[in-house]
Amino acid sequence: MTATAATTSNAATMSGPEDGVPTPETEFLAIEEACEVPTTKLCTHCLEYNFSRETLDPELRPGGLDGNAVFTTFGKLVKSSTTCPLCKLILEGLENEYAGDNEDSLKDRVGNDIEVFISAWLGGETIISFFIVPPEVKEPRYPIPRLTESKLRVYLDIGGDEDCDYYHNREFTRYWARRPPLRPWSKPCVKRLKQWLSMCLQDHGPQCCTMRSGEEIDESLPSILPSRVIDVGPLSGSVGARLVESDGKRGYYTALSYCWGSSLKAERPYLTTTKTLEKHLSELPWDLLPKTLQDSIRLTRAIGVRYLWIDSLCIIQDSNDDWEKEAARMGTLYAQARLVIAATTGADAEAGLFPPQTYIYRPSETSWSLYFRKYQKERGSLQHNLPLFTRGWAFQEWVLARRIVFWAQDRMCWHCAKGCARDDGRHVSTSLFERYNTWVEIVTHYSGRELTYPTDRLMAISGIANEIHKKRPEDKL
Length: 477
Fold this sequence. Notes:
This is Heterokaryon incompatibility domain-containing protein. InterPro entries: HET (IPR010730). Residues 1-23 are annotated as: Disordered. The protein is of the alpha+beta class. It folds into two domains: 40-175, no CATH class; 187-346 and 386-471, no CATH class. It is 30% helix and 17% strand. The chain has helices at residues 24-35, 44-48, 53-56, 74-80, 85-99, 106-110, 165-168, 170-175, 187-203, 277-282, 291-302, 311-314, 320-327, 330-336, 392-400, 439-446, 459-471; strands spanning 4-7, 36-38, 69-73, 115-121, 127-132, 148-157, 228-231, 242-245, 253-257, 307-309, 339-342, 358-362, 369-374, 403-408, 411-416, 419-422. Strands 2-1-12-13-6-5-4-3 form an eight-stranded antiparallel β-sheet. Strand 15 (411-416) and strand 16 form a beta hairpin. Helix 14 (330-336) crosses helix 15 (392-400) and helix 15 runs parallel beside helix 17.
């Protein structure tokens, strides 16, 4: 069985109808084919090494270097790294970590015969550490001094359906992370999101149906659509996406929250303007749309919702009158959306909804297979790691939204008034979703956000102000 390098990047060319928008069926197939690309075979040592809990967990290992196992020697790792992608990833981590604090090379410092130890933190988000102890330390005591270390995040794949009992067994998830979302458009991913939405609509009651204004939404009755929305077309993909003017009609819709990026409006040919409006009412220029917008159209269609609102397409960008009119309605717009799709990981509209990750796949015919990727330390809370949480307009969109699907730490996540969830079944703990109860709290958290245009400072929070004023008209904001 050949080892593979896999990636979550969904930038592969898709086949589809003449309008250029892929159908779900061809889309799923293309993504799955693009996710696993054959590469150099792993070395025999990596293929046969016992990456089990008994090997990795120091608490279960008697003797040795404080219970830590030996993976290989540094010389063998260097030699193998020329052909084995996993050894190469381990070596790069060791060398980069060492180079940050030292001027000499790691090889000159340790030689070829020094041992590379392996240990792991097994807590649902498995991290394996490959480390070297300083050569001069002969009898290390706890805590073990580490000259350098290379950390990898590891996911386990037992095969079969992602909804099987193993993946939701508490003992199993206590130690191992589920396989990564290699196929973000696959049916299990869409199935999970539809389950979250259905559960919220059916079981969560008034808590998830009430807007900031205190108005309770009748979920059985479609909302009045915004002035313009994107008709994403039927699930079959037989009709392409286009802009429609709602004229007060009702319908269920999603709304996109995302970062535009730093480029000027003139550099975005996909925008709806007075010149492109008529053309967009006939058909959206699929090939010109940035990836985040394409992804949101695909996702909306996949979950069976017909309409989508995106500011850059649904507001006439060179009309001040239209912009002011629509911007003033954003509070109600995001609050009434069936679901808000948040592109949390991208700093611009080209990033897409899903963070690209490259994995090294270690297959096994006798035990569970593993996926490895470089461990990236995240600083502080999600607010410090996800670009969308630095933006002013996004603050309002999140405060007003009743349901949000977003991506963080290479997982799909859900939030509503009842709580948070991840697609691997583990808990999401974050302060992102605090329900600010006073205007002072709202302004305090909003004031640190960034805006592309400083003149938007008041407008970008006016939706929250309007909703609160409906609930407490006697208050002066």
